């Protein structure tokens, strides 16, 4: 295995394989937990890739599933070892949404809907700092600075010379009307948004207030898709104290259909650029 394997994605793949072995054995997660004298939640977290998995865990599970092919066991053990490597984001210390960053780092495309603010991958430094400061009024300046640095580092996927992230962002008008920082910060942010929207792999659409109710009124979400067919798509919903990751096919399909409705109801790319340009002029007055 290459040393630069994304640990988050490696955990997901390993978890999927362990789930497959359990299902082939016809066992429930509860039955496996009883055999290993661990909690059922641990088995579930190992299978969904949300928990770090050790080579000992893999060995014990393969024993329960009676995996006799040593090549399969060795391969899974190596995957467990790779999954414990650190991604670039670990150098910043404890990041609450590190699982998401790991997924985003390996994603081929990202569809995001944001009703309140400009998405993180399209934020300027000043906008990001003002936004984080306002959203986390009790955070220390060092923590704010760390979050800004991580956000800017994530944006390297957009500017990557090879295989950049395919980004499709649908915004509610509130995201460009909400004055974050001050008027100059907003002018700078909207100009950057216009510039980024010209990139061939970035599409920005806006839903004006005049559209009224639409499928996105329930809140922000993102859909991540991956280059390897073995990696299922993920719907990410950010929370205050915990985040939600949906991977079941029916859940992803439901959110994908909802996103298609959002794209259909939003202004097209050219109309969006014109609208944002006019909002920027309003801030400049």
From TrEMBL:
The transmembrane residues are: none
| Gene3D superfamilies assigned to the protein according to its UniProt record, in alphabetical order | lambda repressor-like DNA-binding domains
Superkingdom, natural source: Bacteria
Domain HTH cro/C1-type: residue ranges: 18-73
- State the name under which the record lists this protein: Helix-turn-helix transcriptional regulator
Q: Give the source species.
A: Streptomyces broussonetiae
């Amino acid at each position: 295995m290459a040393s630069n394997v994304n640990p988050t994605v490696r955990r997901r793949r390993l978890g999927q394989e362990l789930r497959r072995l359990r299902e082939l054995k016809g066992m429930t997660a509860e039955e496996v937990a009883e055999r290993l004298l661990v909690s059922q939640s641990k088995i579930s977290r190992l299978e969904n890739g949300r928990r770090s998995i050790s080579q000992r865990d893999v060995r014990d599970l393969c024993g329960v599933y009676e995996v006799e092919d040593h090549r399969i066991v060795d391969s899974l053990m190596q995957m467990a070892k790779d999954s414990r490597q650190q991604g670039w984001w670990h150098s910043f210390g404890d990041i609450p949404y590190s699982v998401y960053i790991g997924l985003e780092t390996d994603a081929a495309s990202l569809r995001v809907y944001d009703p309140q603010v400009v998405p993180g991958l399209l934020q300027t430094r000043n906008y990001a700092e003002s936004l984080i400061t306002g959203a986390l009024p009790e955070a220390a300046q060092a923590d704010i600075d760390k979050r800004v640095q991580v956000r800017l580092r994530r944006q390297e996927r957009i500017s990557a010379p090879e295989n950049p992230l395919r980004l499709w962002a649908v915004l509610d008008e509130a995201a460009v009307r909400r004055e974050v920082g001050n008027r100059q910060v907003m002018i700078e942010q909207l100009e950057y948004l216009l510039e980024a929207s010209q990139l061939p792999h970035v599409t920005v659409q806006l839903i004006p207030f005049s559209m009224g109710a639409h499928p996105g009124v329930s809140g922000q979400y993102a859909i991540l898709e991956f280059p390897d067919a073995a990696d299922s798509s993920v719907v990410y919903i950010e929370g205050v104290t915990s985040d939600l990751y949906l991977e079941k096919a029916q859940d992803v399909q439901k959110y994908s259909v909802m996103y298609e409705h959002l794209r259909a109801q939003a202004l097209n790319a050219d109309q969006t650029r014109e609208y944002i340009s006019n909002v920027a002029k309003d801030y400049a007055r």
